C-alpha cells in the first residue's frame, strides 16, 4: 500500500514537472524543452530505427523531428500526452524519409545465393540502401506500452526489421505504433491523420507480410533458453574459428541451412557447403590476421571483427557481424562491412 502511494505521488510530481516545463517551453525556454524530450530520446531513436532500418537515418530523423516539434510547440494543445505528440512527429518525419529514400535491403532481397565462394565480380553495391545494425545500448529506457505485443528487443531483431522494409510506410508505422508501442488504433488514426478503419486495414495487411517473413520463434526466446554465458561462448567460438582458420570448428557451430551475407557485397551464401567454401576461401585464407570483440546488436550476439596485415601489427575495423541462432547453432551470419558502423557501438576504429 505504502509503495503504491509513493509511486502515485512520484508520478504526480513528475506530471506536474512536465506541465511546468511544457509551459516554459511554449514560452521559448529551450532548456525546458530539452528536459521534456530527454527521457524519451532513446525510445524515439529506436522507433526511428525500426521505421528506417538504419541508425544513421534514425539520427537524422530524430534530429529533424525534434526540430519540428520545437518549432511547432505552440500548436500542441495538450489534448494528448507529450510522448504521444513526439511519437506523432517522429513517425511523420520517418515517413517523409521512407518516401524520399525508399526501403533498405539485404543481399537476399537482390538475387539468389551463390553455391561457391565468389572471388571476382563481388564489388560493393553503393547504389543500394542497405539495412544496418543497431547497438543494443540504444534500447535502454525504451518501454513498451501496456498493450504492446512485441518486446522491445524482439522489435529490433534483424528478421523483424528486415521484414518491415517490405511494408509500405503507412503499414510499417501502424504496425510499430500498435504492436510495439501499444497505441490504440484510434490513437494511431489521429497520429497519422487517417481513419480507424484505414489503420485496422493497414495492420491486417502488415501482419500478414511480417508473419510470412519472421520466424515463429524469436531470437529473444532462443537466447533466454540458452543463457547469456552459452550465447557468448558460441559467439567467441565462431570468432576464434575464423581467427585460427579452423574449418571443422566453424562447421560444428552451423546449421545445415545456414546463410552468410555481407552487405554492401551483393553475393551471399546458403547451406553449410557453400558457407564453408566461402569461409575457407576468403576469411580463412585471403585475410592475413583477425582479431575480435564480442558485443550485441539488434538484441542478438554480435562479433566486431578487425583485420590486420599480420598478427603483430595493427588491426582495422572490418565488420559488425550479427549472429542469428537456432537452438545452439548459428543459422544466419550477417556481416555489415565497413568501419563506419563501429562508432555507434562505442568500439575503436582499430586495435593495436
TrEMBL record:
Highest taxon, organism lineage: Bacteria
Keyword Transcription regulation attached: yes
One Pfam family this sequence matches: Sigma70_r2
Domain RNA polymerase sigma factor 70 region 4 type: 159-208
InterPro entries: NTF2-like_dom_sf (IPR032710), RNA_pol_sigma-70-like (IPR039425), RNA_pol_sigma-70_dom (IPR014284), RNA_pol_sigma-G_actinobac (IPR014305), RNA_pol_sigma70_r2 (IPR007627), RNA_pol_sigma70_r4_t2 (IPR013249), RNA_pol_sigma_r2 (IPR013325), RNA_pol_sigma_r3/r4-like (IPR013324)
Location of the RNA polymerase sigma-70 region domain: 36-103
Keywords on record: Sigma factor, Transcription, Transcription regulation
Domain SnoaL-like: 236-332
Quaternary context: Interacts transiently with the RNA polymerase catalytic core formed by RpoA, RpoB, RpoC and RpoZ (2 alpha, 1 beta, 1 beta' and 1 omega subunit) to form the RNA polymerase holoenzyme that can initiate transcription.
Assigned protein family: Belongs to the sigma-70 factor family. ECF subfamily.
Listed name of the protein: Sigma-70 family RNA polymerase sigma factor
Organism: Streptantibioticus silvisoli
Organism classification: Bacteria, Bacillati, Actinomycetota, Actinomycetes, Kitasatosporales
Amino acid at each position: 500500500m505504502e509503495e503504491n502511494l509513493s509511486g502515485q505521488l512520484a508520478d504526480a510530481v513528475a506530471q506536474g514537472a512536465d506541465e511546468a516545463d511544457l509551459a516554459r517551453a511554449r514560452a521559448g525556454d529551450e532548456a525546458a524543452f530539452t528536459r521534456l524530450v530527454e527521457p524519451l530520446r532513446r525510445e524515439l531513436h529506436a522507433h526511428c530505427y525500426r521505421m528506417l532500418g538504419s541508425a544513421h537515418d534514425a539520427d537524422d530523423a530524430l534530429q529533424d523531428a525534434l526540430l519540428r516539434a520545437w518549432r511547432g510547440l505552440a500548436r500542441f494543445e495538450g489534448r494528448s500526452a507529450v510522448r504521444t505528440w513526439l511519437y506523432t512527429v517522429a513517425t511523420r518525419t520517418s515517413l517523409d524519409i521512407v518516401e524520399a529514400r525508399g526501403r533498405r535491403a539485404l543481399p537476399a532481397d537482390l538475387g539468389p545465393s551463390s553455391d561457391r565462394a565468389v572471388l571476382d565480380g563481388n564489388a560493393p553495391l553503393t547504389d543500394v540502401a542497405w539495412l544496418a545494425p543497431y547497438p543494443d545500448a540504444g534500447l535502454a529506457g525504451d518501454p513498451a506500452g501496456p498493450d504492446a505485443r512485441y518486446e522491445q528487443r524482439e522489435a529490433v531483431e534483424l528478421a523483424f526489421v528486415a521484414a518491415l522494409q517490405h511494408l509500405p510506410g503507412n503499414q510499417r508505422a501502424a504496425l510499430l505504433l500498435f504492436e510495439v508501442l501499444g497505441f490504440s488504433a484510434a490513437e494511431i488514426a489521429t497520429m497519422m491523420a487517417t481513419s480507424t478503419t484505414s489503420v485496422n486495414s493497414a495492420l491486417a495487411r502488415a501482419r500478414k507480410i511480417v508473419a510470412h517473413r519472421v520466424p515463429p520463434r524469436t531470437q529473444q526466446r532462443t537466447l533466454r533458453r540458452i543463457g547469456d554465458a552459452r550465447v557468448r561462448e558460441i559467439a567467441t567460438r565462431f570468432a576464434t574459428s575464423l581467427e585460427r582458420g579452423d574449418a571443422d570448428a566453424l562447421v560444428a557451430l552451423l546449421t545445415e541451412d545456414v546463410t552468410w551475407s555481407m552487405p554492401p557485397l551483393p553475393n551471399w551464401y546458403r547451406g553449410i557447403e557453400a558457407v564453408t567454401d566461402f569461409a575457407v576461401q576468403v576469411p580463412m585464407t585471403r585475410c592475413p590476421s583477425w582479431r575480435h570483440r564480442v558485443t550485441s546488436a539488434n538484441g542478438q550476439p554480435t562479433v566486431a571483427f578487425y583485420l590486420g596485415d599480420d598478427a603483430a601489427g595493427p588491426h582495422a575495423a572490418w565488420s559488425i557481424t550479427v549472429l542469428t541462432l537456432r537452438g545452439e547453432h548459428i543459422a544466419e551470419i550477417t556481416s555489415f562491412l565497413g568501419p563506419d558502423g563501429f562508432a555507434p557501438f562505442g568500439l575503436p576504429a582499430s586495435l593495436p
